[in-house]
Every structure is written in structure tokens, then in C-alpha cells.
Amino acid sequence: MTVGTQVKQALVSLKSAQADFESFALQTQDQAAKQLYANCATQAKGMIQQLEERVQYIEQEEPEFQGF
């Protein structure tokens, strides 16, 4: 498995985790837990943005990874 493929898989996993955190925040009544999940979702969003930039760079440098 190439680095490009691994980065894209990590990006998909991170997007799933972000969605889970957002869902958990909406489902809980515990305000401390709600804040924790919201913070985790925000941190995941930042990591997603960074990984998306990295994927764009990889695709520019290695055109064979486009569309995977």
C-alpha cells in the first residue's frame, strides 16, 4: 500500500470519527461530555483540513494517485 493510499484512508477514517463526535455531542445530555465531544470534533476538523491539503500535494506530485 502506498503512502498516498494510506493518507487517503486516514482522511476517510478521520471524517468518520468527526461525524461520530458530532453525533455523540448531540445525543448526550451531560454538558461536560457534550463539550468534550464538540472539542474533539473541532480538532478532527482541523486535522481533516491539513490532511486534505496533503492529499492535494500528493496528487500534484504523483498524478497516479488522483481519484483513489
UniProtKB/TrEMBL annotation:
<dbReference type="InterPro" id="IPR012452">
    <property type="entry name" value="DUF1657"/>
</dbReference>
<protein>
    <recommendedName>
        <fullName>DUF1657 domain-containing protein</fullName>
    </recommendedName>
</protein>
<dbReference type="Pfam" id="PF07870">
    <property type="entry name" value="DUF1657"/>
</dbReference>
